[in-house]
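Progress report, Aim 2. The chain analyzed during this reporting quarter is listed below.
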Amino acid sequence: MQVLVTRPQPDAQATAARLDAAGHGAIIDPMLAVEAVEARLPAGAFDAVALTSVNGARLLGGRPELPALAGLPLYAVGRRTAAAAPGAFGTVHVAGGDGAALAELLRARLPRGARLLYVAGEERAVDLGAALAGDGISTELFVIYRTVPAQALAPATIEAARDGRIDAAFHFSPRTAATLAARAQEAGVATYFRHVEHLCFSANVAKPLAAAGWPTRVAAAPTEEDLFDLLNG
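Predicted structure tokens for the chain:
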């Protein structure tokens, strides 16, 4: 099968390599690019650090503020984020793959009065501060990157859509899904994507695709392994 991969680099290339190893083809067209932004670490001491994305985990490793966080417990939204995080932290706690699971883990582990550093991007799928405020946990936001949407579909993607050569598409985030739907509409190829099997990380990811009238299937759990299970099922 030919699978459209729209996640940012370098993850898009890694997914494409995995598709190739499984006997599938990949069309890479990232719908978002990740850019570091200037940021200042909030003052004061913290009791823990939270990460909700692989992008944040990777970029934190190159930040000059990292030594100030060394030894603190790290709370990661899922396994991939934990694996991408720098090794400077103490105990690493891994949630079940989404923001709600991470908030639940933090409530269970952190005492009232704890101060949490939330390392994130400019646009966030979860508001940890609001989720934890009622539990007496103070959350400080440390924004270190932004994601910039693609301005157009790649010519190869447009051609493949028109020729009916895209069998499936992997969707990892609501923003990449929404950006693909918008760019396909602008390119005049949105109707072709109604014949593509759109395999989604979660129900939230599927929403902008369903709104475009495209068929969606949602993974049993928000992992790449489960997307491959959908593809091969």
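DSSP finds ten helices and eleven strands in the chain. Residues 2-31+150-232 form a domain with the Rossmann fold fold (CATH 3.40.50.10090). These observations will guide the mutagenesis work planned for the next reporting period.
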